Amino acid sequence: MRIPFVLIAAAGLLTACGGGDKENLTTDSAPAVPQVVTIVAKDFSYEAPDTIAAGMVTLKLVNQGPDLHHVQLLRFSEGKTYADFTAGMATMQPGAPMPSWIREVAGPNTPVPGGETSITASLEAGNYAIICFIPGADQIPHAMKGMMRPLTVVPASGAVAAAPATDIAITMTDYAWSITPAITAGKHMIKLENMAAQPHEMVLVHLEAGKSVADLATWVENQQGPPPATPLGGISGMSNGDVVYVPVDLVPGEYGLLCFLPDVKDGKPHVAHGMMTQFKVQ
Question: Which strands form 45-47's sheet, in the order they lie side by side?
Fold first, then answer.
């Protein structure tokens, strides 16, 4: 769940949020399971390793703040660094597209405050930023309050873990999801692939009785009153062709998937283009 990236640029974002001890998670032998990297979100900062190994990684988000927080990864190509990123945002014009050397890479989307969520994905070596685009009730994105920090992914030594086994496949297009087979109650591992032309996120929510995904889309605009749904994670913005793995453990009830990313053509959130769906878990 996020707001347009260009609004941060227009505000002249220059804050670089550091902190956290350096940690290199390379290993000398093939792990039985993907390495686990824990990222702790607070209001408004992250605690995370400075350096991790490339390959199949489970990113675990622990939300210790009273606000909603996600992990959006941005990967820099063309030899660009985190310093280039912050400097470029200072001169970016409102409405300008994200530079071609920045690629959105999925991280875990927001759980409830005090909750945890995770995803598993294969990360390439390179320079990244960890950033939170979610706005609070004041409509100010958390990145504008300093909620961003660099991350370096280094080549792994030796073999890396294989992707987890899955039993649900979800494909994202412009502007819909395809779910096979229908999701039932209990634990599942979802293979999520973005086949759309543009990036999309997947916000997974458990709807309150009598509420709909449309109610949640409306609530997000002003965040007044109790929310009509409980966030359960999902993934932040993911680029075309990428694949991630999302574990879920669902009880019977009504659920929704929504994408709030801004459209590349008109800047409207994808929910305004109909990218939200509701489904029943039995």
Answer: 45-47, 35-42, 55-63, 116-123, 243-250, 186-194, 168-173, 176-180
